[in-house]
Amino acid sequence: MAGWLAPLAGPVELALLAQWSAFIVSVDDGFDRHGQSPAQVRTVLDQLVDVLDSADGTRYPASAPPAVRALADLWERTRIAARPGWRHRFCALYRDFADATCTETQRRARGVRTELDEYLALRRRTITVLPVLALVERALPPAAELDGLRDAAADIIAWTNDLRSAPREEDEGTENLVGVLARHHRCGRSEAAARARAMLAERMDDFDRAAHGERAAPIRRVRDGSLAWQRETHRNATAPGTTAEGRDRGVRALVRHLTVAIDPAGHVDDRCDSRVLETALLLALLRDQGAEPGEQERLTRFLAHRRPGASGIDALLIDACLDPSATADRAPDIASGLSVAVSRGTAGRGRLKSVMLRTVLHLLCGSALDDSDMPAPAGPEGITTYTDVHLLSTRIIHAHACGRPHTVTDAERDRLVSLLSLGRTRMLWEASATTQLLGLHAVRLSRPGAPVLEDGLLRLCLAVNGDDGVPFLDSQDLWLTAVAGLAFTGEADLAPYVGRMADLVASWQASDGGWPFASGMRQTDVDTTTRCMEFLQATDPGRYREALDGATTYLTGVAGPDGGFPTWVRGDPPDLDMTAGAILALAPRAARHGRLLAGALEFVLNAQQTDGTFERSWTVSESSAILRALDALHAVPAADAGLAARIAAATARSVARLLDTQNPDGGWGHLPDDDSDVLSTAQAIPVLARHGDPLSVSRAVAYLLRQQDADGGFTSPPDQVGPRPLPFDYPVLTDIHALSALRSARVPAVVTDRTVPGPPRSSRPPRSSGPATPSPTNWSALEAGLRGVLLRPEQAAYEQARLLVNQRFDHVRPQAIAYPADVHDVVECVHFARTTRVPLALRSGGHSYAGYSTGPGLVLDTSALNSVTVGGGRALFGAGVKGLQAHQALAAAGAGLPLGRCPTIGLAGVTLGGGLSAFTRAWGLACDHLREVEIVTADGRIRRVRADSPSGGDDLFWALCGGGGGNYGAVTAMEFATEDIRDLSCTRFLVSWPTTDTAAVIRGWTLWNADPATPRSVTCAFEQLSDSGAPGVPTVTGTFLGTPGALEPVLDHLAAAVGRAETGRVVVPCDYSRAACEADRWGGGTLGARVAFAAKSHIVREPLGPAAAAGMAAALEQAHRFTGVGGASGLLIDALGGAVGDRLPGATAFPHRTAVGVVQYHSYWHEFTDPAHVDRRLDWLRDVHATMRPHLGTGGYTNGMDPELTDWQEAYHGDNYPRMQRVKAACDPGELFTFPQAVGR
């Protein structure tokens, strides 16, 4: 502790501070845990204060307790180096501590509950931080102006201690800060702990704002050292967390649980679980040394407790340690049977791992070693510190076991001792108990008198966990903090802690540019470095640019010639996980490292097995490796269509593997035949959420939520391994992955009855009579007739399944949600809705602006109808296929289609409404490529209609091409004619101007887009967004089918039409999938957190005149003035023209063939946005729509339905509406398929 409090002090001062620390802790713990009465406490403290107050502190009664005699000795030695007047200051502080402690003891004895303000003031005095600060500062000028800073340090240390000790103190019946907050705010302990953590963050900020200059430095060191001591010693980490309250489960309870896991300095705080290997090695070493019999008893108890149900390797190690004589002879044979398991996933070091196992067995039970297994000598160059110690230790142990100690040189023995003498800034050598134990066993044989042996044994005994076992590592804090920080960046309640976490990570960057996995270590590694880079890049790439530059140099320096990256040092075998991490870390700098990343992508693609899996290496979970690999493959735009096709094919294989291996309970295990576990499931969910099947995601989320612990966290068997392939467990990692999984699946943060403001009721009366609420028997009958899944409110998966993309409709609770497995299931659902008169809502992606893809009755979700077949110039898609899935399948076949930009949008919905895309001007609308539609109509018939179908089928096909989804029946499949993209180049671009030029940009863009000279190969949009009062800049962003060089003159023509100087132009080549989806474009994706939104639209029929452009700009200026109003607003003008105009307005149901574009006025907000702010945003939408109507007239886009629009028939459908009505009357005369803006008869 002394070293943490005063790291710059000399040996004498450190020894004195260490003794003071021991005295203070023993006195404090004695009062807290020994149940002394107030009178006894007062007596002891009066004696201590008397020692300090007397002129000669060495005098005390002969009957004085040990604490008094210890203080007298300390006091005599402490006063010598103090400044004049310091003694009186220290005495006053210690007397204040004594009085506060007595007050606290009396209150507890009388059962008096302390109010919050009183508790905070009392706690500052009882924590003894102020006396400790006085000790550290005793040779310095008083600096009374820093008393506020000292108080802040005391509060921080006290509150941190309270958070850590809260579970234990609750068990003991003692109320600390968490209990006081729970009582004060009338909330549960989980919320109270989160409130305490928020108070800590604020107090840390107070301290940092005030701590300036050299004189404040000692106070900062005491604060940071005390926090480090609490963290590293895990003094109070002996009990589970607090229980989540009531219905407050899911993401919100998990976030609260994780909030407390972040210590004030920004570390994600956790303790590695105990393992058999390290426990057995320590017990054997203590036994051989004849040391610490009490510790030996604890370790023996742990091993005996672990023996029942132990794995094969653990059982062998336990038997070898606890019953060496009976195990020695048979241990080698048993070990040889385990050699395959031990050698798996060890990056080519299988033989060395097997030798290490036999070496360990020799240390535990004396089993024979073969001198042929002795590793060859190796120099320290090109190997890690761990490998160096392992090789040296193994050589020494083998040499002594085989009676040939002379085969190891004195230089090797000296190097081992020298290595173990370094790296002592952590409790354990380089944080690893395994490596230190092997090294100490070797030192005992070769240098038994070396000080590192006694020192190492002390450190290892201090590292023993509360369950009496030894952990593999004593910390993984930098790796955990980076992984957690990346997960926290998108979570509102965790984001405030991210900045301090990032600063902490950046501060521990090593001189070589990399990071070690724990603070205080020397050995850096690729995995931690890539995780830290991802985190810093996501947090603030400008602030951490220097750190990112250094890390980039580190990574490029260790890359192998085959494109792979090793775990540790250049020249080691490449590793899939490391290579994937390097891609993710370097992706933001892809323009400068294209060749390196191309090789890395090639390595990952080649590493995939035919079944879609990847080498598991540092994990035992298939889904973990798949997630990391696929994230890497999609992090960098593919350089050409061929690479894009391979990435799409690899993704499809991995997705198919996960779908095939999902367990009946909805989860995944480490391997296909294993029971489900939280970690494996949590790492499968993001893959399927981005690339797969929503129904499978719903089942997986339901499994996860069933596993949530009472404290809001999650528990799982570990999936990290080290030394490979032995698992080790940091429990917080399960919580981090669970949070990422639930966020990727868009699970709401809180289960609550509170609703987000929804749209006003439509003035249009419902067409169907009120539904008869089906009895349970009715629903059971429907379920019995389905091959797919029927979800009801009582089922766990229902809560996630019922949600649309738009939070405005989170209050809607359908009676049931059906996921049909095939078209016959759809027939069953249609028949059920017709005969029971239950309202029916259709859903393919859940993106309905007006919320029409949900309702109070039966929701028919086609997500599971997601089959894909592409080839021969056609593509056949199930109605549940999403945008990204479709584009990846198309890319893999060298084909393309204009199917919308959003990765998660359902193809049925976007196509049936027309379908704008990144290729609209080049290829027309999505519906223009339709060749056949499979649909179940209201009479339950399965119909396949084409443009030339007889008996009214042609009219139905016409209406389906742009007339809007959900009007005529339930579409189940669609066939498209595809475009050939095999020789196609794609380029993305963004051009921006100053905010003051908004009107000129709007007008110039519409003129340019309508100009016949503008090539069809460019499709783009004008967009501008105002976020909470911060004005955005006007931009034009889009896609060009061609090279960057060919695009530049086209953009020059745009700039001339605008007539204002650009502020920026970005032109980037990309692959087809990236061009098609534009997931990172505003309004282009819904992969992240869900939001609430509303929109209105107009059709821009001709280039805007000056007045119209000025009106739009003025409307945006109003949005810029929403300072302090939560959310964002703006407008988006998507381009029409080009190929869209090749058809007449009546050729399909989409009537806006001659228009320039579609303008959508958007506003976004969040679940907890103040309703008054929501109303202001909705009023803004109404105002801008009304303002622009005189300029733009009637007109709107059916895929952006506006529930407030009264003349929607003309706006969406124009002159085509009468024909659409006739089709409706023919195929749905009873209007089974209805919603407020559905086509009527």
UniProtKB/TrEMBL annotation:
Keywords: FAD, Flavoprotein, Metal-binding, Oxidoreductase
Keyword Flavoprotein tagged: yes
Pfam families in the record: BBE, FAD_binding_4, SQHop_cyclase_C, Terpene_syn_C_2
Biased composition regions of type Low complexity, renumbered to the chain: 765-777
Record GO terms (molecular function): FAD binding; metal ion binding; oxidoreductase activity
Region entry Disordered, spans: 750-779
PROSITE patterns per UniProt: FAD_PCMH, OX2_COVAL_FAD
Domain FAD-binding PCMH-type per the UniProt entry, residue ranges: 809-981
Cofactor(s) this protein requires: FAD
Family to which the UniProt record says this protein belongs: Belongs to the oxygen-dependent FAD-linked oxidoreductase family.
Protein name per the record: FAD-binding PCMH-type domain-containing protein
Natural source organism: Streptomyces longwoodensis
